[in-house]
Amino acid sequence: MPLPSIQIVFKQVGASAVAQGSTGIAALILKDASVTSGVTEHQLFTVSDIPAALSAANKNYAQLALTGAPSQVKLVVIPAEAADYAAAQEYLETIHWNVLAVPGIVSADAAGMGTWAKGLFETKLRKITAVLPAVAADHPAVVNFTTNNIKVGSTVYTTSDFTARIAGLIAGLPLSVSPTYQLLPEVTDVPKLTRAQADAAVDAGQLILYHDGEKVKIARGVTSFVTPTEALGADWKKIKVVRILNKIYEDIRTTAEDNYIGKINNSYINKLLLVAAINAYFEQLEQSGVLDPGKSTAGIDTAAQRTYLQSIGVSTVGWNDQQVREANSRDQVFLTAAAKPLDAIEDIKLDIYL
User: Fold this and answer.
1) Residue 19 · residue 169 · CB < 8 Å
2) For the chain, how far is it from start to end, CA to CA, in angstroms?
3) pLDDT of 33-64, one tens digit each?
């Protein structure tokens, strides 16, 4: 028998979406000679928290992540000679974080890291984001960062190296803000792209840095997701929207586990209390400018509960919806919700007539 759980299934039909939000924790996987076996975790809030024993390169990765002002940076450090990242991946499944980078990872390992991130997102109840170098995963959980030869003064960063900076930036943004056109003031140059080349990269699900002739900024805050499905619509291409969706999932799941599961009798009244709590949460996000006002609501999923009752031998023939909602559903709670995350202003069209 598996662990009890609440399944919050996000479904998107056309323009509608389910949502959520907040700033987050950046996690970095590092290989370092200071660790000889197993996995060591370091929690950073400021540059002064960076361990002195780390290599110069790894200290720099930590500084890059902190530059974005996430609420915290967690370093998951494994031995320098580790053959793979399996131990770090297993460890990351046991701690809380939001956005991951693996600076220094080689292309041969990056694709596997993307597969692991997709698995966390889809089957292990972990709604996370992984910023990976040149991984066209076609999935909302993976940001496909592709800019190379990034110059910061006299230092040149590879795509893989600079994922630490991008992960920290994404984790540090409020949910009301998109990564699109976020400036990287320390970056002095990147390979020049024409507008058409930049548009083509974004359309292909690539997060790139763009030099507008004066400064370097993120071209558009997109995930690697480029093929919408019936379950996941086009909104899942946007990092801002995905972060909102991920946060609401985590908030509702955590609240339910801490306050409802195993603690509250599964009566109709208590189901209504849970629904009211979720609706109050949606209202708070609406007031914070994260959700579109008046378009977020949760309720009992009458159709799903009717199907469940029939599956356990309870005949619902002749029952109206209210009778189904009030029926004893053992230890199961079936809820449905609809919400609309607010995206950021990213395209402005202005016609000037003379």
Assistant:
1) no
2) 72
3) 999 999 999 999 999 999 999 999 999 999 99
Neighbouring C-beta atoms of residue 252, cutoff 10 Å: 21
Q: Is 69 left (phi over 0), alpha (psi -120 to 50) or beta?
A: left
Identify the burial level of 269 via C-beta atoms within 10 angstroms of its C-beta, where 0-12 means exposed, 13-18 middle and 19 or more buried: exposed
Q: How far is CA 277 from CA 186, 206, 256, in A?
A: 44, 38, 10
Say how far apart CA 260 and CA 5 lie, in whole Å. Answer: 11
d(CA 21, CA 341): 9
Rounded-to-integer distance, Cα 63 and Cα 165, Å: 8
Q: What is the pTM of this model?
A: 0.89
Q: Rounded distance, CA 236 to CA 243, Å?
A: 10
Task: Say how far apart CA 161 and CA 106 lie, in whole Å.
Answer: 10
Residues 6+ apart with CB under 8 A from 238: 178, 221, 222, 223, 343
